[in-house]
Model the fold of this input.
Amino acid sequence: MLKERLDPETLESLGLIKQAQQFNQKIVKIKTKLFYKQQKFNLLREENEGYAKLITELGQDLSGNLTSHLVLENIKSLIGCFNLDPNRVLDIILEVYECRWEQDEFFIPLIKSYMCEHQTLCHMLGFKFKFHQEPNGETPSSLYHIAAALLQHNLIALEDLYVHLLPLDSSIVEEHKREILEAKQIARKLTMVVVPSEKTEDKEKEKEKEEEKNEKPPDNQKLGLLEALLRIGDWQHAQSIMDQMPAFYATSHKAIAIALCQLLHLIVEPLYRRAAVPKGAKGGLMTPLRSKQAPRPAERFDDLSRDVFTMLCYLGPHLSHDPILFAKIVRLGKSFMKEFQSESRQDTKDRMDSLLSCFLSIADQVLLPSLSLMECNACMSEELWGFFKLFPYQHRYRLYGQWKNETYGNHPLLVKIKAQTVDRAKYIMKRLTKENVKPSGRQIGKLSHSNPTILFDYILSQIQWYDNLITPVVDSLKYLTSLNYDVLAYCIIEALANPEKEKMKHDDTTISSWLQSLASLCGAVFRKYPIELAGLLQYVTNQLKAGKSFDLLILKEVVQKMAGIEITDEMTVEQLEAMTGGEQLKAEGGYFGQIRNTKKSSQRLKDALLDHELALPLCLLMAQQRNGVVFSEGGEKHLKLVGKLYDQCHDTLVQFGGFLASNLSTEDYIKRVPSVDVLCNQFHTPHDAAFFLSRPMYAHQILSKYDELKKAEKGNRQQQKVHKYIAACEQIMAPVHEAVVSLHLPKVWDDLRPQFYATFWSLTMYDLAVPHNAYDREVNKLKMQIKAIDENTEMPLNKKKKEKERCTALQDKLQEEEKKQLEHVQRVLHRLKLEKDNWLLAKSTKNETITKFLQLCIFPRCVFSAIDAVYCARFVELVHQQKTPNFCTLLCYDRVFSDIIYTVASCTENESRRYGRFLCCMLETVTRWHSDRAIYEKECGNYPGFLTIFRASGFDGGNKADQLDYENFRHVVHKWHYKLTKASVHCLETGEYTHIRNILIVLTKILPWYPKVLNLGQALECRVHKICQEEKEKRPDLYALAMGYSGQLKGRKVHMVPENEFHQKEQPVRSATSGSLQNGPGNTGKPAVTAATASAGKAEEGAVEDSDKSKDKSQAAQKAASKNSTAANKVSSSNGSSTPNSKEKEDKEKTTKEKKEKKEKNPGSTPEAKAGGKDKQKEEKPTDSKEKTPKADKDKRKDDKKEEKSKIDGKTAEKEWSKERDVSNDSKTKEGSKVEKSAGAGSMKSLVPRSEGVESDRASAVKRELAMA
Done:
């Protein structure tokens, strides 16, 4: 009792025990034996028989009728018999299960039946995992498997097991961040310029890092468990583990990605076999998972949204590990899209919309990133295109945009891949030349199969800097896949739309070279390769909608390259002549570059425009944008740039309209282009553009109706054909005549008939003349080609035969086309001959008629295109040749040549070229008439257009005295030349950039026919030389133009003649005084002269004013007029008589008397009485009049020097002042016509040339003035 109660030290002091220390040790041993030593035999070494029997029981062959229930009973017996520890038994069961992990059907029910608590099992597994967490330990896959199986059957909870696994989640996150950082560093190094010494150091460091990575990575038990879960199909628990980790961290490990891919294979297999297997493909059958807990296989497309899409999203770019699954998913998508597109029921389609969104998401997050990680797999790229091409381009481009700009930044692997792609692209582009296009092209193709966006982005950036790369790059793109071509189109559009790039150069006067390079690339690439055009065309359309016209350059290039339609104002005369023929002649001789084989590419362009309904919108937007460039877009831009943009917009419209006219069928064109009144009134299309778009439609319709009438009533006679053609024209054009009435105010139609207006705007040069020379020229070229082929001994025989056949066929086509055009022109001319009597009503005055004709017809159209410029000149000549009533040819030409300053100043650069071409053609006609009396008499002698008397009663061809004779016509032509010189000198002296540039362009264009007079040529030469000196440093482009013109002008000097050879001037000088006496500036009662004496001053001052510009001119002129009134009156006093004969004097007096009587009744009422406006002016200033003395002519000669110094300003001022006053008389024209009619013989010959004497004086004064200058 004392030993139990007392402590050892006390017992030792009492002598009950020997030593307290020994006693303590003995007590510990007794207590340990008593309380801690196990009495039952539960260790293998202690009870080896029981455990041996247990292992034998679990390890026996399980293939027979043995069930887990029987084994469990035996295990219980062993536990009872040998007193085995149940937990130890469970541990042995797990060990055996680990060794026989494929026997899930046996062990899972056994464990289910055996265990009582989930926590116990979980801790046991946890201890097993803990055992393998040694520094060099490796967890066996069998342990992962049994853990996954137990999780799948809910025998343990994931949350309980997860805490036993390493590494920690925080370590995983840190590792992921480290990977991203390393990837970015690698990318940065690849883009940096490195010194060679640094390169070697970096390489050594990289080697060390690679060696470290090659060392065995630490065991990641979480990923091992995840893989096992995926392999047995436990997606639910696998998803939970993946959610604990950073995005795509788990699948970035190849084993996990492959396990997930395998699971996806099993799920999609039934649906793939049913709906997506290509014809002829067999494929291997896959055995489904035996576990009932595994995800169910997909039988329909709806089943994919259950698990498949989610799994793919977790897989992300790592689908690249399994190209076969990639192909299956793509084919399923393709099959779904076909079903979706063929589905007609709306409710089903709405249900399928969500699936469509899912497929788009998969394409964005999985398919495209996976393609980037695949190593140059062209088959997968083509497979993916089969799926993508079923989407509209908007969806595709959205996907490409995400792929290019966002995907590569989300994954460490993709960051590295991007850097490597750029590095490789740099390597290839540095070595790309015209000579090594093929090998470089193969390398580009190989690189583009996986990462096209990155490659093309770099290539385009290089092209923007170096435009000489365009040709080799285009040639090297032939190894691309269809998907790559589509991506290229997107990359080009993205580069064009880059908001950070300025589309103007720093000087703000020209379009940036990068934009020009990209536009050129667009044309070449889209022509050569089958790339969809819809996106690019829509981009241009959207830019136009936004009021931006820079990108029209792209459309211009695309149409030029794909359709072979070239727009240039620098055409040669031969090309222009060829452009007036048929389509075959245009293609052969009309363009600088003979663009062959455009049939397929132009068809593609046409289909893209029609399929996306962009043809008409583009036309209308371009037509509207022309004015938008000036008034909306051009507010802050440099005038030079505004002009270029206007020209670009206009040229592209002409080119695009030409493409539509030549490529669209009649039905397509008529269906899409509305009537001209709708175009103008509803769509606010300018009239010239509206008729330009409608013109091909009228031609198509007339020909169709003509063919219809021919078939209906068969008759081969030429006369019958002509009548049928005229009937067809009347049927088609009648609605057009009604439609055009709404385009202008009612008073316009008092002079011009709608029929005349519509005829002018609906015809082309093709309708008026056959270019026989151009046809002959091209046929001769082909004959020469055939001859050259025959003489070529090196060419193979079969190629010779083929080339000869091609040339012969082309020759036959041209000859047939010429014959067809000849018949057509004859029909058109016959039609015009019948129509001409009803063209001009002239209810007001002939002057007003000409004004409206020029304002509404000639001027708008002559600057529309080069061919239209020629057409306008030829149409004026045709109207004259047809002897059209009420059309004064002289007045028309006079108005065109008299004052070109305002017209020239308001033109853009290209318009001035066209205007120059128009003037050139007009001058050509005038020069032909001027050159030979016989030609003049034949073509003008008895024509109403050269009538110098204005009668409302019409033209009396019998009265020869009313006609302008040849010599007086030569005086008039000299006056026109003088007027052109005066206007040119004025423009050159303004110092304004636009004036100088435009007049130099116009002068260059009219050089073949002007100047013809030596002193006028010298005047121009002097002014141009001055420009060359002044602009050499300031404005180099003007200097270049001036130098070019100056050189050509010097070359033309040999063709110039003195003034007295150009028109007779010596003889009339002697009679100038008497002429002055009879018709002085103050002689208001004698404004008219005979046809022989002719008053060019009147023509210049009275009948040739431009009423539309009179206000502007008068304001500018009044100051000059007040300053130079004396000089102006002297100029106006130059209305002299060309012959001193007394009969003519009597005629003059008689005419003057009649005029006075008329003036008393209704002053200034007739169109001819416009000269009276000038007389009025002179009556208001009687002190300046010199009519009473013969001194007028003497004073004029005396003050020549003073007068000529201010002649340009003074004459212009006087003319413009008189014009301002004359405008006020126009309102009385109708009444005046009646008076004139009642007066009978009373008439006024107002449009006649100035007397030769005065002309000679003026010319000599010009010489003196220019010599002084």
Residues 2 and 11 are 8 Å apart (CA to CA). The two ends are 152 Å apart (CA to CA).
